[in-house]
Write a structure and sequence with these properties.
By secondary structure, the protein is α/β, with parallel strands linked by helices. The strands form 2 sheets. The chain has an 8-stranded mixed β-sheet with strand order 5-2-1-6-7-8-11-12. Strands 4-3-10-9 form a 4-stranded mixed β-sheet, covered by helices on one side. It has 2 domains: 164 residues, NAD(P)-binding Rossmann-like Domain (Rossmann fold), CATH 3.40.50; 117 residues, Orthogonal Bundle (N-(1-d-carboxylethyl)-l-norvaline Dehydrogenase, domain 2). α7 crosses α8 and α10 runs antiparallel to α11.
């Protein structure tokens, strides 16, 4: 039995919450700005329903075994500050976010031993407040260790596969390489079918190759074959809409920095040119500009 709070009931947050709530022993809470009466997620295994306790501000959380932060990466600094009252307690924080800088926003508020970064692969779409569709079985990866093992146990018998990795840094960078390539869908407002266009596939490949070079400089172990594997994956799912694309379509803020900007920033740190990632960052930032 565990008391679990999920901060951020978006597509990923709703999905993990719904699965955890199916365990009769778990006590589940959701932190949401607006009222959510219940959560419904359509999964490959069927419709899941949950009625979590609602908390409007993360600072109100007390007595939790786990807090799962599933907000967008750009909200992490604010969330970290709101959760600071839990620092030094028995509560463990799992950071389920895109990018490779999971822990940085929380490091100023929490001891390292209280934080667990999580690589997320849960293809899901938020359709309304508290509503989501999970397109296929989800996958979460965490670092090896006692906290990682505890997180794996938390998701036992759910529709989400959770496993420990002996090289979490490489796992995080592999996911970032995948995400980085999706920027052109957000620029063009077209799904993954664009990877079937030879010219666009070449440009996507350059995004990936820049990310791989920076990843290696950061210590990740990535094979050159990853580039073709990522492009093949996009081509195999032509209707796929990644979260950056979905956010732009919906008029929401985008994780530009967490997905492509970080490659540019860390590239500069290592003296590695990243012109293709710089270009998509500039284009996506410009897409937000008004004329007033």
């Amino acid at each position: 039995m565990a008391a679990v709070a999920v901060v951020g009931p978006g597509a990923v947050g709703c999905t993990v919450l719904a699965w955890l709530a199916q365990h009769a022993g778990h006590r589940v809470t959701v932190v949401a700005r607006s009222a959510i009466e219940d959560v419904e997620v359509q999964t490959p295994q069927g419709l899941l329903r949950a009625s979590p306790t609602l908390v409007s501000n993360a600072s109100e959380l007390r007595g939790q075994d786990w807090v799962l932060v599933a907000t967008k990466a750009y909200d992490a600094p604010t969330v970290a500050q709101s959760l600071a009252g839990l620092a030094g307690s028995a509560t463990r924080l799992a950071i389920l976010q895109n990018g490779v800088e999971h822990l940085e926003p929380f490091a100023a508020h929490f001891p390292a031993g209280q934080l667990l970064p999580v690589v997320v692969d849960i293809p899901a779409l938020r359709t309304a407040p508290g509503r989501a569709i999970q397109h296929r079985r989800g996958r979460l990866r965490v670092p090896e260790g006692a906290m990682g093992a505890g997180f794996v146990a938390l998701f036992a018998n759910t529709g989400i596969d959770v496993s420990e990795s002996p090289d979490f840094q490489t796992e995080a960078w592999k996911k970032l390489c995948l995400n980085a390539a999706g920027a052109f869908s957000a620029v063009l407002l077209k799904p993954a079918v664009i990877a079937r266009h030879a010219g666009v596939a070449m440009l996507m490949g350059r995004l990936i190759s820049e990310a791989i070079e920076v990843a290696r400089a950061e210590g990740a172990v990535i094979d050159d074959a990853l580039q073709d594997a990522i492009l093949d994956g996009y081509r195999a799912n032509p209707a796929g809409v990644n979260s950056l694309h979905a956010d732009r379509l919906a008029g929401r803020a985008m994780e530009i920095d967490a997905r492509n900007g970080v490659i540019v920033r860390l590239g500069r740190k290592h003296g590695i040119p990243t012109p293709m990632n710089e270009m998509v960052v500039a284009l996506l930032e410009a897409s937000l500009m008004g004329v007033g």
